[in-house]
Specification:
The chain has 615 residues and is an alpha/beta fold. It folds into four domains: 2-219, Rossmann fold (3-Layer(aba) Sandwich); 251-338 and 462-521, Rossmann fold (3-Layer(aba) Sandwich); 373-459, no CATH class; 526-610, no CATH class. 45% of the residues lie in helices and 16% in strands. A hairpin with a 2-residue loop joins strand 11 (237-241) and strand 12 (244-248). It starts with a strand and ends in a 12-residue tail after the last strand.
Length: 615
């Protein structure tokens, strides 16, 4: 349906406006925190009004005033219930601030809405609702149908049921023709999120054509609510970014549209994380996803905090599709793939078409693009294939067998690449006439991998993932399916043991470097911030000493400017000794901030602003 919406948020997106005219009955606004979704809703509501709709916005704080207890008079206006003389005020405040208290006014005054809510409550929860008027206040009460005393809804009911009652009241009310709901999933477990979406689907439509229908805009962080059944559902998903105007799926190529239609039925809640991540990282299989996540978590790399996540998508063909889709949506996606991307499939064509990869290929003399370089590589690989197959040297039996057993040209080429990577010296010794090809293939493969990296695609340098882990001792040319699970289980057991960071990085080598680059992950450096705090303490002690007010450990602890009661939580004074015209103070960190209880020393001459703890 045509609804012109133009939104500008200069401090987030710059001067460029967001514009979209075509919307569906149900529209999703998704993306990381702090990208402007809630602020977007304010302007969206205005645009809906201009287009002839009667919108209602429900904020993420919509239950304010309906909490069980009031703290410091917060929500005190509803402390005794809903004043029967203030219904109009509840409605106006709700409309202005996105609050939902007037949902209960709707239930009181509109019997058609109340009947539907009562049917829901009795069927799903075995409860009935009653509105009592006591002392000029409306007080919603609930009672279990199969016995049980009546109780006050506001004080004694859970947040989840309050959420559902208030949301359903606005869904079933015929007064509003457009609902903008910020985080409808709040306090709802996944099954009730699914139920809520089912109710929304029943009511969704163009109210200008079909009375009693509504158009919905859902601001959500929940993959359970992103239910894309047909291609048009995905078109109505707006992706919010940091420092970039929101994007959405516009016109796709016929091939991408076909691929998307095939993918949608298989798009599970895990896959949908990429709609919310700053930096989704697509990998080929579930063992890749779990192992990569464990490696980073074991090294204290904060994937979730930085908006990164590993998503498995069942092979490089689907990686190819997600690569093109993320480019279309301007999502900063990364990919970790086996080296056979260079020898087969359409993914390499998509990488080659990426402008970043093309520029690198041109600058580095690879060719006009990645595929141009791959064609050159194939010529050298094919020559080496023939030489290996013709060799009678017993030292090459394993390599020759792997190459000859491959029926497809692409597989032969991949296995020769693996032979060059893992048996380069042997090939040079047994096939001295082909040393040039071997060296060229090794260098070219590395350069092509660097070109792919410019487009956010990280190719595993040893071939398959299993070739990068020490527990795998099978063929480097082809990893049996049964070996993948067994290898993962061994590596998982290692990572879940007490292995320290140094042991993990030594074990995985190149893999760790790739994961760090792909995820852009960071580590919380507690020691750095401890150093800042200790530096402030040192400065206070030095000033007290210069004034003649501190000359021992006892006077240090008693000095008002030092504020020892604050600092004694993180370290102890071991000694404070005068030394000529200066002093030396020895300290020890407490286990609460440093399990190794590091000792450190500072002097009257220590530059406190540059103090750093010893490693």
């Amino acid at each position: 349906m045509n609804i012109p919406v133009t939104v500008t948020i200069p401090d987030l997106w710059g001067a460029e406006p967001f514009s979209k005219n075509e919307w569906g009955p149900i529209n999703f606004l998704v993306g990381p925190n702090g990208t402007g979704k809630t602020r977007f809703c304010t302007q969206l509501k205005s645009a809906l009004s201009k287009a002839g709709f009667k919108p209602r916005y429900l904020s993420a704080e919509r239950l304010a005033g309906l909490e069980k207890h009031f703290v410091m008079n917060h929500g005190g206006a509803l402390a005794h219930g809903f004043s029967v003389g203030n219904y109009a005020q509840y409605r106006s405040m709700g409309a202005e601030q996105g609050l939902a208290a007037d949902a209960f006014v709707i239930l009181k005054e509109k019997i058609n809405v109340r009947i539907r809510i009562e049917a829901f409550l009795s069927t799903i929860f075995g409860r009935r609702i009653r509105f009592a008027e006591e002392g000029g206040y409306l007080k919603p009460k609930l009672q279990r149908i199969l016995g049980g005393t009546e109780y006050a809804m506001k004080e004694d009911e859970c947040h989840g049921l309050k959420e559902l009652i208030t949301l359903l009241a606005f869904l079933y009310d015929d007064e509003f023709t457009a609902l903008v709901i910020d985080e409808p999933e709040l306090h709802l477990h996944p099954q009730f999120q699914t139920f809520l979406l089912a109710e929304i689907r029943k009511l969704a439509g163009d109210p200008r054509i079909t009375p009693l229908k509504k158009i919905f805009f859902l601001v959500t962080h929940s993959p359970y609510l992103l239910d894309f059944r047909v291609f048009d559902d995905l078109r109505q998903c707006v992706i919010f970014h940091r420092d970039l105007v929101p994007t959405f799926v516009g016109i796709l190529s016929s091939q991408d549209e076909y691929s998307l239609k095939r993918l949608l039925p298989r798009l599970n809640t895990h896959h949908k994380q990429f709609f919310f991540a700053n930096r989704p990282i697509f990998v080929e299989g579930y063992t890749d996803q779990q192992l990569f996540s464990l490696i980073q978590e074991s090294r204290a790399k904060l994937l979730g905090a930085t908006g990164a996540c590993f998503i498995d998508v069942n092979g490089k063909d689907e990686q190819d599709f997600f690569f093109r889709l993320c480019q279309h949506l301007q999502i900063d996606a990364q990919f970790v793939s086996d080296l056979d991307v260079l020898t087969r499939g359409s993914f390499r064509n998509s990488i080659s078409a990426d402008s970043r990869c093309k520029q690198f290929a041109t600058d580095q003399g690879i060719g006009i693009d990645l595929m141009d370089g791959i064609r050159e590589l194939n010529n050298r690989v094919d020559a080496l294939v023939l030489a290996i197959e013709a060799s009678t040297a017993p030292e090459l039996v394993q390599v020759k067998s792997a190459v000859q057993s491959a029926s497809e040209t692409e597989t032969k080429r991949y296995r020769v690449l693996i032979a060059v990577i893992h048996h380069r010296q042997l090939l040079g010794e047994i096939l001295p006439a082909k040393v040039g090809e071997v060296d060229y293939i090794a260098a070219k493969t590395m350069k092509l991998a660097e070109a792919a990296r410019q487009a956010g695609v990280f190719l595993l340098p040893k071939g398959a993932l299993e070739n990068h882990v020490p527990s795998y001792d099978g063929s480097v040319f082809q990893v049996p399916e049964r070996a993948k699970t067994a290898t993962f289980e061994k590596e998982r057991d290692f990572l879940l043991s007490s292995a320290d960071q140094a042991a993990i990085e030594a074990r995985y080598g190149q893999l760790v470097s790739i994961l760090d680059q792909a995820s852009g992950s960071s580590t919380v450096n507690l020691r750095k911030h401890l150093s800042y705090t200790i530096g402030e303490f040192i400065g206070n002690v030095q000033r007290g000493f210069e004034r003649g007010e501190i000359d021992s450990g006892d006077t240090l602890k008693q000095h008002a400017s030092v504020d020892w009661k604050v600092f004694e939580r993180i370290f102890d004074v071991l000694s404070f000794a005068l030394s000529g015209v200066g002093f030396e103070c020895r300290m020890k960190l407490k286990a609460v901030v440093d399990p190794s209880e590091t000792e450190f020393t500072f002097l009257d001459s220590t530059v406190h602003s540059k103090f750093t703890l010893p490693e």
